[in-house]
UniProtKB/TrEMBL annotation, chains A, B, C, D:
Active site location: D135
Organism per entry: Fodinibius salicampi
Protein keywords: Allosteric enzyme, ATP-binding, Cytoplasm, Glycolysis, Kinase, Magnesium, Metal-binding, Nucleotide-binding, Transferase
One Gene Ontology term of the molecular function aspect: 6-phosphofructokinase activity
List of residues binding ATP: G18, R79, S80, G109, D110, G111, T112
Gene assigned in the entry: pfkA
SUPFAM superfamilies cross-referenced by the UniProt entry: Phosphofructokinase (SSF53784)
Binding site for substrate: T133, I134, D135, R170, M177, G178, R179, E230, K255, H261, V262, Q263, R264
Protein name per UniProt: ATP-dependent 6-phosphofructokinase
Residues involved in Mg(2+) binding: D110
UniProt activity-regulation remark: Allosterically activated by ADP and other diphosphonucleosides, and allosterically inhibited by phosphoenolpyruvate.
Lineage, broadest ranks: Bacteria, Pseudomonadati, Balneolota, Balneolia, Balneolales
InterPro entries, per database record: ATP_PFK, ATP_PFK_prok-type, PFKA_ATP_prok, Phosphofructokinase_CS, Phosphofructokinase_dom, PKF_sf
EC number: 2.7.1.11
Length: 331, 331, 331, 331
């Protein structure tokens, strides 16, 4: 094993795809683990785009000073259509050789891992992925970096909206992020004390919402919050508002809020910082141990390695018990 | 004067119009000042609506326990078209007589004060107003209750958006509240470090924005935030985005965020709590001193009484020096 | 099973011991689950103290409206020496019979569960415990309610202290809560980017701290944060400061901060709200299913029942991997 | 005037004394104003210490990118005993000449301004001061940079402590900063809804506290918060606790929290950012206009210039009306 471990002398690290709070904590852990193990760390800017454009810089413990609490990513991020081309990949490979990198740690989501897999296979190059996305839609880890912070950001916003909703007896539709997944909506719906949560994984149709609103309009409940996942099948929050207006007239005064990109930023939560620190250390150790083409994750509080192929092809399941809990306590 | 002071034995307090953080601190101060001066305080729910529907409750020091830090208003708020009718006013007057109220403290904005003025004149009834609106568009006070909290909410959101904007080199249009006034936009634009602030009071046309974007697209500045007041004359943030896309194509990757109702809620800032506490005390003391048809405000750190007539007819001016400061530091 | 389920018609709920953010979310979930299952919920104030003094109130869905986001506990908490006496217990039992309660849900930590166990055994009465303590020192659940929020509170404070530490090149000793356990210190140490973490579970003696400070005083590192668990074996933070001053003289400018009771309060994090909501539902369902003398917990994302006897006698272990991660990234 | 304005070609900026949130926003505004007016800005690290050690660096608009929201000061701060010596001053003067600086902007408090005054007089060198201290104890400005943020930090902590105080019916003594001034205590006492505020400017003796506690112990008020300024004349919070214990025995369960250095850090509030931005611009313009030996401040929303001599010799007065308001609403 020691022979393998000596083979990794230089590691490049990049963040790619949508940014997520805690990515900086992960970068910091990767860089410091490298220093700890006598490996030279290199920062690659703007994801695969920077790899192609040779936007690469040697890093050291000082490069990652005072970033653990900062949102965003100091390495910046980008989506790189070029990296899907033969020429783009070839150029990236040239730059990797120029810097004599022995391995890559890539931090991001599905798209990031797909690119890593293709590139790693093509050039027989060791790559380890770290799951970072507020959407939490990555198979192979209980939570992705950024999810916990996004949840806190959302419930904080929901708390604020509840203040004004309650003061005016209003019905709010609040759209949250999550792409095709309803994780942000489901967790923040429970945590925010929402009366309804609409997610793509559990489409019950608009009728169920109508029924529920029918019941409460009779009970004269003071205000109502409906959390809607952006991937929900019943149309946009504006469509929903329109349909509710048609159905209920002025029995409900409705408002719409799309939380938008505030969900991507902000100081990472302690949970995300700890998760990112662990995964950063584990990614470097995995490379030293000869692992490649895998994603490091934490499941049931233990490290888990998932082949990138699986991580990208499978989807994590919505926890049915959470749906049940949401139904029971939103009565 | 002591005769006057003895005439006020029961005071009703209500919040009306859009809610604002700090209204609870004002209610608390009104109620506690009443208790301090041996006056019986009555809470009127849902503004003038509750006055008409006799939704009135006697209060005491205990009724306002642990509310100073809560957003929204425990008395709830509403807009009341009924109060503009003769019948509505008559019903309100009946209820006031039933509860033997000697005066009202009304917390809100322009609309609230207009209603107060008409009603006070019609029935020769003493009313004192307290300015509470995040829009800060009230003449006669440096700041209205809620403005400072809204600013902090907005810059916190802007800080988060900057995290992701910087990570991706994006141009964000962020719409903030303020109705016809640009105060939230101007202050949060400076405080948020925005590159551009678009406000109705200083319409320079879309060309100026284009020029500025032209300059920076050459300097390759990493990200740009444009704060847009909802009352801005150049159209919605979506219109702006569209125009910028047409003009600049893919030289800018644009995004839009409408902050919406989160700006109305949240724990009030210390500044708003202190302001609300002062104005609450001053409103009760003004009534005891025989004042009526006035709004209490703080100007230059001193109490100021403004006739409701003036408060509603005049508009506060945008501070030119702020505009100048914004121009200088956004280079 | 249905017979069992019908036997539980009235459930009392109380919070006891040190309060923790999220307890309100748990109370809310217990009460709403009761309503959902047709059980009458009763709130018992001030823990066992209120049970003895018959400070008991029937609750309904409305009693727990708008509390999910509030710190503290609306049922209040207390430590009850009386409940350890025969007379105290007898009085409590009398009150339980008076209200015809069929079971209790007790929310708290070790002391709470010990009391529950004795009482439950003595009177053959069904009790289910929910783990709520910021210290996280409860066996049988991955996390106790309040821990996640406390971590976020601590890292937020640490972030602030880092601002001033960095500006002045200072060495800070920051004492955090946790009683005999170092969980808050270890997690917040990693999350806060502390250079050193001193916990009771891993006592390395003051010499190791000296060595580390020796190294960095040579490297001229700009500032240093040392997180100290209150249960640490090397004395109080003031003792530590004293010893470092003696050893290093003016090579370090030292400061001490004891975070104190701010760690117990505050709006619960989304994670704590979701955890509390799940455990609240599960506790009521456990009672309906005839379970008793157990604590409901979540381990590896699944419900787990632990006998109260075990929960109080065993201690959760400090995760060794976390200690390792902390060592690697604090270089 | 244009001749004068052309004389200032290079300006040095430094932060000195205790750091305060918003100092970075002030540095940013100074640097950007310089760029705007064609002046070259130089950053001096660690206050006068760095001036003596020639720790000076040319800055540009990019040097102050993304710092407006950061606590602390990127230029760092220090207290410099050396600067009080003839040799220290001479060395500083030499470095100023080496960098061909034409003027200084110094950001800090009393001590900072005294040093500036002596140095400016001795070498006939133009210096302008910007008031930055959370203690707000500077004459010549309504508010100093950092005060507003510290207030929000304190009330947020007080809100958290109230959660746990209320849950346990406890009496808390909370010590806040402010040196000899009670501004933080008075404002945060009102904003935090404290039952008592003890400040050096209004020493009523321990007896008054006893009387008040006597009254409320009879009324059985659920919890009590006493905010104590660090400069209060009745001894430390620990002394106070001791005296209350002696007087009241177990009628009150007491706790002590010293908020400490968290008050110095954190993201600046919007108010502090706007204030700092204005003062930064004004300081550079004052120098261009030939002003020297003055501090720029904002009074009654307008710029005000105060001779450094006055700023250091006089003390701002505690607003009597605030004391009155605190008394009325804490009944």
């Amino acid at each position: 094993m020691s022979t393998q471990q000596d083979q990794i002398k230089r590691i490049g690290v990049l963040t790619s795809g949508g940014d997520a709070p805690g990515m900086n904590a992960a970068i910091r852990a990767v860089v410091r683990s490298c220093v700890y193990y006598g490996i030279e760390p290199f920062g690659i800017y703007r994801g695969y785009e920077g790899l192609i454009e040779n936007d690469v810089e040697q890093m050291n413990a000082g490069s990652v000073k005072h970033i653990i609490h900062q949102g965003g990513t100091i390495l910046k991020s980008a989506r790189s259509p070029q990296f899907k081309t033969k020429e783009g990949m070839a150029q990236a490979w040239e730059n990797i050789q120029e810097h004599e990198l022995d391995a890559l740690v890539v931090i991001g989501g599905d798209g990031t891992f797909k690119g890593a897999m293709e590139f790693g296979n093509k050039y027989d190059f060791p790559i380890v992925g770290i799951p970072g996305t507020i959407d939490n839609d990555i198979y192979g880890t209980d939570f992705a970096i950024g999810f916990d912070t996004a949840l806190n950001t959302v419930v904080e916003a929901v708390d604020k909206i509840r203040d004004t909703a309650t003061s005016h007896n209003r019905l709010f539709f609040i759209e949250v992020m999550g792409r095709d997944a309803g994780f942000i909506a489901m967790y923040s719906g429970i945590g925010g004390g929402a009366e309804e949560v609409l997610i793509p994984e559990k489409d019950r149709g608009i009728e169920q919402l109508f029924e529920s609103l029918e019941r409460t309009s009779k009970r004269n409940k003071s205000s109502r919050l409906v959390i809607v996942a952006e991937g929900d099948k019943n149309g946009s929050v504006y469509d929903l508002e329109e349909q509710v207006k048609e159905q209920f007239g002025d029995r409900y005064e409705t408002k719409v809020t799309i939380l938008g990109h505030v969900q991507r930023g902000g100081r990472p939560s302690c949970g995300d910082r700890v998760l990112a620190s662990r995964l950063g250390v584990l990614s470097v150790e995995a490379l030293r141990d000869g692992k490649r083409d895998i994603m490091v994750g934490i499941r049931n509080r233990k490290v888990e390695y998932t082949e990138l192929d699986h991580a990208t092809k499978r989807n994590p399941k919505m926890d049915k018990e959470l749906v049940r809990v949401a139904d029971i306590i939103s009565i």
